[in-house]
Design a protein that fits this description.
481 residues; alpha/beta; D-Maltodextrin-Binding Protein, domain 2; 2 domains; 4-stranded mixed sheet; 19 helices; 42% helix; globular
Length: 481
């Protein structure tokens, strides 16, 4: 999301426009110094932060059917029946009711299992079962190439240049110049699935370490800096000579998350695109291999990483328990799972993943996958679908993202002002890697996870073995006209 979006959200917050719906949530205070720097605005000027260009169009009471899927790692639902006092849910309610009233429609949500086969069957049978749906990113691409969904460019009433569409991320999702799917502020799952590091603030104090916030600010938050902090705290605390879940660790993460989090943070991609927007393999480039070996060095060689996790969720239950008990310096986490630590007694902070070295100019953060909005070819109401999708993104920017980002994250979950500032940095530099998302089954969850789990570093030979398979998948991608 563009920097201007986050600035605008802060202005919205400070102007007192985010309603807490009479909840007991602690209000966010604006300092006198901050308030003095904000322009004066009137209610009329700031009633809506974003507007679309849809004009006065209505759809005569039509039903707009949204098919969503259940998943334990994201906010799956997009509607609620009534306001409850929960900030995020109330924002959904306000967004949807406003759209219903404006366009004279009725939004109906169908929550289904996270399986693509039933969706394929529905569309192939010609069943006009839903207007707008979501699929995992890997399924969405191949549904499109199989002729089951419309390209986003075929849908009328969409304006991807608007700030409530994720311009930088959408550029990374094109193949051969074809914008077959697009991400916007309606897609809260993209925030949910953004990854960061949590660190134990008490350990930093106990071991008299330099503040990692300061390291980030000085451009010195690197893999070596992270290694130094991890190595200092690792300990067989029960003295049984066996390092397990009862001991103290430097780093907690599901094995499949380690590699892509570090290579993306280092500014590398497993799959890049050439000047014609055509994907190619980047995993054997010199710098990628250097980064690859580096994160093996700081995890396996330094024995800082807890490798025996049960791996039940993207952020494993046992990892959360160890970190909550104050027995790890760092834990890998998606933003959806930060909420599980609300009751943790020991203070923690939030950081981006480290840079490869100080020569690297930016910090980058990974979006591990995403739900792609799809419009099935059975849809005969494309004008309405495009208009409502555009409005959902616009009003999500006005209501839902502020609730999620400014209140739910910055107030409920982050423990200090520095962590809140880190959120801005993390979200401003989000990256999607095709090998981590669309080709996840083959690359990230396939041979990459196997290699890291087994401490196998021979990336060049393994890529050579998989090159034919990967290139065949490239051939199936929507390379445009």
């Amino acid at each position: 999301m563009r920097n201007t979006t986050w600035t605008a959200l802060l202005l919205l917050l400070c102007a007192g426009l985010i309603s807490c719906a009479d909840t007991a949530d602690t209000p966010i205070e604006t300092s006198a110094e901050t308030a003095a720097t904000l322009p004066e605005t009137t209610a009329a000027e700031t009633e809506f932060l974003y507007t679309d260009d849809l004009g006065d169009i209505t759809f005569s009471g039509a039903e707009f059917r949204i098919r969503t899927i259940e998943n334990a790692n994201v906010h799956s639902y997009v509607d609620v029946a009534e306001e409850s006092g929960e900030v995020y849910d109330d924002a959904l309610y306000k967004r949807n009711r406003k759209i219903e009233e404006r366009f004279d429609i009725k939004i109906t949500e169908m929550i289904c299992e996270d399986k693509s086969a039933p969706v394929r069957t529905l569309i192939q049978s010609g069943d006009d079962a839903f207007d707008l749906g979501v699929l995992r990113c890997d399924d969405a691409m191949f549904f499109y190439t199989d002729g089951l969904t419309y390209s986003i460019s075929d849908i009328p009433n969409l304006d991807l240049t608007k700030p409530y569409w994720a311009g930088k991320l959408n550029e990374s999702l094109t193949i051969g110049g074809n914008q077959y799917v697009a991400i916007g502020d309606y897609d809260i799952n993209v925030l949910d699935l953004t990854y960061a590091l949590l660190f134990n603030k008490q350990m930093v104090a106990d071991y008299d370490m330099e503040s990692p916030y300061q390291l980030v600010g000085d451009g010195k938050w690197t893999m070596d800096a992270m290694l130094s902090m991890m190595s200092e705290v690792v300990s067989d605390i029960n003295g049984d000579s066996v390092m397990d879940a009862s001991d103290r660790w430097g780093f907690l993460s599901h094995s499949k998350q380690v590699s892509p989090n570090f290579w993306i943070a280092a500014g590398e991609m497993s799959i890049l695109k050439d000047k014609d927007d055509v994907p190619y393999i980047n995993m054997t480039s010199e710098r990628f291999v250097n980064v690859w070996n580096k994160f093996f060095d700081i995890t396996w060689d330094a024995e800082t990483w807890f490798s025996k996790s049960i791996g039940d969720f993207d952020v494993p239950t046992d990892n959360i328990q160890i970190f909550s008990e104050g027995r790890s310096m760092f834990m890998d986490v998606s933003f959806f799972h930060i909420g599980t630590l609300r009751d943790m007694e020991t203070d923690f902070g939030v950081l981006p993943y480290p840079k490869y070295d100080e020569a690297q100019s930016e910090y980058y953060s990974r979006v591990s996958y995403y739900w792609a909005n799809i419009v099935p070819i059975t849809n005969t109401k494309l004008d309405m679908t495009g208009a409502i999708l555009e409005a959902l993104n616009c009003e999500s920017a006005n209501y839902v993202v502020p609730a999620y980002y400014e209140i739910a994250l910055k107030t409920k979950y982050s423990r200090d002002e520095e962590s809140a500032a880190m959120l801005d940095l993390i979200f401003e530099n989000r990256v999607v890697d095709l090998g981590d998302t669309v080709l996840c089954a083959t690359i990230r969850d396939g041979f990459i996870n196997q290699m890291f789990t087994k401490n196998n570093r021979d990336i060049i030979s393994q890529v050579a073995k998989k090159e034919k398979t990967i290139n065949k998948q490239f051939e199936k991608m929507p390379l445009g006209e």
